[in-house]
Design goal:
This protein has 205 residues and is α/β, with parallel strands linked by helices. It contains ten helices and six strands. Helix 6 crosses helix 8 and helix 7 crosses helix 8.
């Protein structure tokens, strides 16, 4: 069985990052919401940026007869917002910091009719990481590296673009990952795009 997933409110880079994560799992298809009348959506992920859900987008998705389940997909994952999300009629409240396997398990549970909040709470380590999830904590080189990752460039291409060694690129990637709390290239793409690095940095490179 293939679970059809659609992403609402996100640009192409975020979509590609999510598609990369889902492709490592199998059993999922990231599809366009435009053809939902012909092929209904099993789970629609609504990307949000602010302190609360994008009420209009969520409401439209929840009311759409061709979308079976709706989940909020956000970096601003605060357990205090869960009640608001549940009242809006969604079936899930998912953090973008989830690994691909965690995201896959959450999507399958939502598809099966469960109400899913993932992660259910922030532990001490995650709180420490969340406090660092700000562009200002990155060096200029780390920002440039993440911005170039978000454009789909390989490490070799990044090294050429920045005129530095491949080892330096790897070092910047490791330190940027540590500071942002991401664990994979796909998560790095999502983090960079959601924090505006692809636009902010490349304009100056």
């Amino acid at each position: 069985m293939i679970i059809r997933v659609a992403l609402l409110g996100a640009d192409e880079l975020v979509r590609r990052g999510l598609e990369g994560m889902l492709s490592t799992l199998g059993g999922f298809e990231l599809c366009s919401v435009k053809d939902r009348e012909a092929r209904p959506i099993d789970v629609a992920l609504v990307e949000t940026y602010g302190a609360s859900t994008d009420a209009s987008t969520v409401a439209r998705a929840v009311a759409d007869p061709y979308i079976r389940r709706v989940a909020v997909f956000t970096w601003n994952h605060h357990p205090g917002l869960v009640n608001e999300v549940v009242r809006s009629g969604v079936s899930g409240y998912l953090a973008k910091s989830l690994t691909a396997p965690q995201l896959g398990r959450a999507l399958r549970a939502i598809h099966d009719g469960e109400l899913v909040v993932a992660p259910a709470h922030l532990g001490r380590r995650e709180q420490d990481i969340a406090s660092l999830n700000d562009v200002d904590h990155l060096t200029t080189r780390e920002r440039e590296t993440l911005a170039l990752i978000a454009t789909g460039r390989s490490n070799d291409e990044i090294a050429q673009e920045m005129r530095i060694s491949l080892n330096s690129v790897k070092s910047y990637i490791r330190s940027a990952y540590r500071k942002t709390g991401v664990q994979s290239r796909s998560q790095a793409v999502l983090w960079a795009v959601s924090h505006g690095l692809n636009a902010q940095v490349l304009e100056r490179v």
